[in-house]
Amino acid sequence: MSTTTTRGVARPAPAKGSPARSRRGLRGNPTVNFWLFTGPFLIGLAIFVIVPIGWSIWLSFFDARYTVTPSHFIGFDNYKQILTNSGFPDSLLTFTVFAAFIVPTTWALSLGLALLVNELRFMRAFFRSVFFLPTAVSYVAAALIWKMSIFSGVRFGLANTVIGWFGADTIAWMSNPTPPWYWLVIVTLRLWIQSGFYMILFLAALQNIPAELYEAAAIDGAKRGWQTFRHITLPQLRATSTAVILLLLIAAYQAFDEFFNIVGQKATWAQTPLMELYKTALGTSQDYGAGSAGAVILSLLICLVTLVQGKFMGFGRGEDSK
Amino acid sequence: MTTTAPQLDKNRRKRRGGVLGNTGLYVAVGIAALLFLLPFYLIVRNALSTDQEITGENWKLLPSFQWGNVSELFDDQTVQFGRSLWNSTVVAVLMTVGTLLVCSLAGYGLARIPYKHSNKVFYAVLATLMVPTAVTFVPSFVLVSSLGWVDTYRGLIIPGLFSGFTCFLFRQYFLGFPKELEEAARVDGLGYWGAYWRIVVPNSLNFFAAIATITFISGWNAFLWPLVIGQDPDSWTVQIALSSFMTNQTVNFHLIFMATAVSILPLVFVFLFLQRWLVQGIAQTGIKG
Predict the structure, then answer these.
(1) Which of A149, A186, A263, B279 would be a feasible disulfide site paired with A270, CB 3.0-4.6 Å?
(2) B287/A243 Cβ within 8 A
(3) How far is CA A21 from the centre of its chain?
(4) Cis peptide before A179 (omega within 30 of 0)
């Protein structure tokens, strides 16, 4: 490190002229440098994030079928159309069902794994890696394994082979909406991919709980196990739990990849909001107006969920373990 | 889960439960680990099998190790898997480099350069986080197609570089970077720019590695955006190619699984090598925000 510094003394001075100006000249001017550092990012953010958001809001009030520069203002008709005349409301219901499954299960599994791994003496890093590894796998690749190998509807599928050992009949896991076995497929897939990541978050938070709390509890006669977990660990993990649940909800809202590849966009069940937007805007109808209206509704819903949850669970109040 | 009480002090040797509790713990973790590894096993097993073995009535634990499946996959002209692999590599690498560059500079500027409206700019960046990026794919597509970037690397990469969240993570990290190091550099006559490249970046490589890993993985695994942008099969990334295999009746089982294995392999390596920093980085910043 010190070598870097000394090299630094020698080099920049001749390159940029008078060294005496370094404090006051352009190189040391905070305002100039602030924009120099943040400028490229802010310009990109404006063009590729803010402009599309604005454009989308604008499009949602126009008759924008097959065009992105419409001229016919139609007020809230796009909103009416997407809310009454499409699969979009159903997809919001799908999301609610999906979130009801995936959020609590991921929360419980990632916390459970963190508690287990945290107890390990030997091979702790190994097991942590094993649970973390699926994070690297794409939803598409996982969908492929789940659909064509584990939950393949035919006889040779792994799940059907296993239930076959117990004498059960072959189940068409995904091609039949009643009974809704496809939820088992979708939920286990997402659990497998995302639990490891949240386990890491919980592990970090667990290590930050002061040991004195447990010592004090032991003196007070609390039994290790359920009692300390219920009255120390869980409350101490509150901030992390809140953040995790929020992230899980937002992610569930945006589910697309595995639904698209496992259920498919032609099915009449389990269509997510993003799939409906995809079909509306980029499918055969190319209705950018209605698609944008749906995007606006979905964004508002996500903001609302974030704010409501923040209100109830004290998100960002800063009593965090870290 | 009878042994859930957290063990906080890593060095504390005393344990409850004794040998029995320990065995139970390792049995539980072991079973969970086997379940988590099962999909990886299935990919490898199927990738190295013949179609008859994959669809056979009797479950075979070990494949017949058909290494020829690898060359068959890359020789197959209708599948063009090599092409999509190359596309994914270009996209993920350039996205990682671009995101690190743009977002780290902005994060540093917001954290460390005293400017009176700095907070306002920061809140503006935070506000964009309220709208999830995936939801804006319709207008983003509209924008990118009007720029004529459909089916191009530019279209695949550039719109994804300006992540408010990554910028936010960098800002949080730089807020905790020791000020003394920069001050020494400034005394030595370096401006902000020089101090950043000569002092700050070289001392933050761990954190850069963590963000790089996350960005690379999400670039490689992205599906929705490449699906929207990649209309011509020549511009397909690996994920789009895999997805098309699933609905395409003409591609054989063993090739599909071999393609999946090949698509996951680079990531598993990147991940295993860099996960130490990743874990550290996650623990360091937390993810609250």
Answers:
(1) A263
(2) yes
(3) 48
(4) yes
Supply the ipTM of this predicted assembly. Answer: 0.85
Do B84 and B61 sit in the same domain of this protein? no
The CA distance from A296 to A302, in Å, is: 10
Same-domain pairing of B46 and B189: no
In CATH terms, is domain A80-313 a member of 1.25.40.10?
no
* Domain containing residue B228: CATH number: 1.10.3720.10
The domain locations on chain A are 2-59, 80-313
Q: Which residues pair with A62 in a beta bridge?
A: A73
| Residue B4 included in any domain | no
Shared-domain flag, residues B134 and B68: no
Closest of A206, A168, A47, A129 to residue B271, by C-alpha: A129
Q: Phi/psi of residue A24, each to 5°?
A: -105, -25
Domain check: are B201 and B218 in the same one?
yes
* Exposure letters B243-281 (e unless 16+ CB within 10 A, then b): bebbeeeebbbbbbbbbbbbbbebbeebbeebbebbbeb
Q: Which residue in the block uniquely carries the two structure tokens 């344990």?
A: B15
Query: If 0-12 CB within 10 Å is exposed, 13-18 middle and 19+ buried, where does residue B126 land?
Result: middle
Give the N- to C-terminal CA distance of chain A in Å, as an integer.
28
Q: State the 10-residue block means of pLDDT for chain B, 289 residues long.
A: 42 49 86 93 88 76 83 82 92 95 94 89 86 78 87 92 90 88 82 89 89 90 90 89 82 86 89 82 58
- Residue A297's Cβ-side half-sphere holds a number of Cα atoms within 13 Å equal to 23
In A27-108, DSSP assigns E strands to none
Determine, for residues B8 and A207 on separate chains, whether the beta-carbon distance falls below 8 Å: yes
Q: Residues 143..202 of A with a Cβ closer than 8 Å to B: which?
A: 143-150, 154-156, 158, 161, 192, 196, 200-201
Q: Which of A50, A106, A82, A96 is nearest to A255 (CA)?
A: A96
User: Residue type for B70, please?
Assistant: V
Alpha-carbon distance of A60 to A292, in angstroms, equals: 5
Q: Tally A–B CB contacts below 8 A.
A: 352
* Chain A residue with Cα closest to B162: A45
Which stretch of DSSP H or E encloses residue A112? helix A88-119
pTM over 0.90? The answer is no
Q: In chain B, which residues have their Cβ closer than 8 Å to the Cβ of A252?
A: none
Beta carbons of A299 and B46 less than 8 Å apart:
no
**Cβ(A131)–Cβ(A201) under 8 Å?**
no
User: Which of B72, B105, B139 is the endpoint of a domain?
Assistant: B72
What's the pLDDT tens digit per position in B260-280?
Answer: 999 999 888 888 888 888 887
* One-character DSSP codes across B18-71: HHHHHHHHHHHHHHHHHHHHHHHHHHHHHHTS-HHHHH-SSPPSS----THHHH
Please tell me whether residues B59 and B171 are part of one structural domain: no
Burial label for B106, CB within 10 Å (0-12, 13-18, 19+), is buried
Q: What is the pLDDT of residues B16-50, one digit of tens each?
A: 555 556 888 899 999 999 999 999 998 998 888 88
Chain B residues touching residue A115 (CB < 8 angstroms): 1, 4, 6
